[in-house]
Each structure stands twice: as C-alpha cells, then as structure tokens.
User: What shape does this take?
Amino acid sequence: MKILLVFLYLVAPIAISADSFEILRNDVEGFAKVVPGKLFDFPADHGPHFDYRIEWWYLTANLKDQQGNQWGIQWTLFRNALSAKSSESGWSSNQLWMAHAAISAPDGHSFEQRFARGGIGQAGVNLDNQFEAWIDDWVWRSDGKSLFPAQLKFRIADRQVDMRLSSNADWVLHDDKGYSQKSEQGQASYYYSQPKIEIVGTINGQPLSGSAWLDREWSSQPLAQNQRGWDWFSLHLSDGNKLMLYRLRHEDGNHWLSGSWVDANGNLTPLSNDDIRLSEKNTRSIKIDDETEITLPLDWLIELPEMNRQFIVKPLYDQQWMETSFPYWEGVVLVEDESGMRVGEGYMELTGYQPP
Assistant: This one.
C-alpha cells in the first residue's frame, strides 16, 4: 500500500494535468541548490545525490546488425525525492525510482516504463564494490566502481537486450565545468556526459555493435516556470566529432540554447545561445494511440556559424513516441550536411509537446 500511495502522490497529479512537466518547475524548499564551482569527484559522482530532488542516468546507443540495418536502444533510470528530508532505507524511504527503456528496431519501436520504491532493494544505484544501477531485472553493472567496462541487461516484451559497454575517454563537463545554467532566473543542473562509448552485444541473440552516449544530470528545479519543454540532440559525427545541444522552449519565444562540441581528440568547446542556430524544418503528425495524433517538429536544421558547420537532422523513422507518464518523443536520428550527404547519426528527444 505504501508504494501505491507514493505512486499516486507523484504520478496522479501528472496524469490528470495537461502539462505533465509541471513537476520539474516546482520550487521545493529544503533541497540542495545547484551552484557554480562544484569540483566533480569520480567515481563518487556516478552515484546518487540524495540532497537533490531529481537525478538520472541516461544511455542512448546507435547500433547496426550484421546486415547493416540500424537499431537504437535507450535505457534511463530516474531518481525522484518526494521530500527534502532524506530518508533512504527501508519502507521509510522517500525515494521513488522510475525507469524507461526502448528499442528502435527495423520492425518498429517498443518501450516500457517501471516504477519502484527506494529502500527495499527493488531499485537503486550504489558504489559499494562496483557501480550498479537497477530496477527489478533491468541492470547496469560495471566491473568496478568506474562506470566502464560494464554490462547492461534489460527486457522489453519478448526482446532481451544484453550489451557490453566500454570507454577510456575523459568525462565531458558541460557548460561551465559541469554547472549547466538553464535560465536567467537561476535554474541549473550539474551535467556531465560520456559521448565516446563503444557498445557491442545482442538483442535476442542477434549481434549488434555501435556507439553509445551517457548523460548524467541532477538538480532540484531543472525548469523555470516559463519553460514548456526541451528539444535535445546527441550526435555522433562521421569525422569523430560529437555534438550535444538543447533548446529549452520559453513561452515568449526567446528560447534558451546550450551545447557542447567535442572534437575527435576529446577537446571541449562550450556552445551558448550566440553560437547556435536551431530551427524546425518540417512538422509531421504521428499516432499516440488509435484515436490520438500529435504534431511534432521532426526535421531540424542545426547551424554553428562560428565553426562554419551546418547539419540537417531527421528521424530514422517518425514513430518513436514514448507514451509514458512523462510522454515524449525519443529516438534514432540521421545527420546530413547541406548537400544531403550522410555525415552522422544520434538521438533526439522532444518533450513538453501536447496533443490537441
């Protein structure tokens, strides 16, 4: 009954609201605040930060099978504190865990979400002897306290995913050395990534390999009241460069843009609003269910004028909608240059869009 009450406390107001992301804007007193100047400590910062309200471990991967067909996987574990007073163990835990997983396959897109109460062993993240993040039988388990090398296993319906992850690259601390400002009103997060992950494994025994991207972020209030959602891109470019950028959409149209360019040697160039031009090229309607459609900006133009770079981003296919408690579009995208030549691939996330 306790887990049901916790679930209803968090999710029921979301389910009946036309704006499912309001929870990310709420200003809750008592939680730790994100401030500049943090010194990141690895591997300790790979673990949970219970003084902050919201946190996630977010993996996306672009894969190919032996026939050259493109696949994608997403695996995300979210932690949400229901109150500022930390209580982490047993049935008194105030931690709620949620996980999303998805497979983008040649025959379509499938997804699943799970919820768990913290403190009873059903879900969590720890660094006792090795890094381990889990909810039920969805498990990321590394060989040691570092995140890599590691094994990722999860199941969606009748598809079993079993992947080996490895990386020796430096961590990317976004924006101001990991302090990621989200608005001029003071909203911010701590945000770092590993964009250079090699991934190899199987889905139902079928061999797949490719590149993966991990995002780590935590905050107590990631959105301002005038921000409706975000558009986020993580791109693996064919020349070895990596690009992350996002747009936080403001009601008045003066959106917040930020990003990071990581060159083939691992050198980071932070990107601010003045460095990025992001525009919607085409919108299309997709089906949420048999009766409901939603119109989304699925084709994009990214311009980095100072770097003389321009990219066109398109979905591998349109139907990659996540009809979860926090509904959003997340899926594999292809990257082209201005001539239409394929120059990369990656993932795109579109949140805060509402059906008519």
Remarks:
- Confidence is low (pLDDT under 50) at residues 1-18.
- Residues 21-26+42-351 form a domain with the AttH-like fold fold (CATH 2.40.370.10).
- Helices lie at 2-15.
- The longest helix spans residues 2-15.
